[in-house]
Amino acid sequence: MQALREMARVTKPGGIVAVRDSDYAGFCWWPQLPALDHWLSVYYAAARANGGEPDAGRRLLSWAHAAGLRDVQATSSTWCYATPADRAWWGGKRR
User: Of the candidates 72, 93, 71, which has an alpha carbon nearest to the alpha carbon of residue 84?
Assistant: First the structure.
């Protein structure tokens, strides 16, 4: 929320503050893979240990209002990595 307050503070009147973040609780995959389940638990622990919020996406609207932003448009999107090439791009394996 502090970051949103600072963004609002330094934005000119009538300017735009744009924010996007993930919500890791919404991540799903098939087939279920123990390695990915483990990765997610490690990510949650590391993010929170560093003061982060892995489920920030669902909180952004309330954080924006708490930061004093009033004309807020909230949207959501979903990514689907259905092809081997998409999964390689997301996972960082380049061919």
Answer: 93
Residue 28 has a pLDDT of: 87
Host domain of residue 54: 2-73
Q: Alpha-carbon torsion 58, 59, 62, 63, what sign?
A: negative
The CA distance from 74 to 61, in Å, is: 7
Number of structural domains (the chain) is 1
Asked if residue 88 is part of any domain, the answer here is no
Q: Indicate whether 29 pLDDT > 90.
A: no
Domain for residue 80, yes or no? no
Measured distance CA(80)–CA(56) in Å, rounded: 20
Cα separation of 22 and 44, whole Å? 12
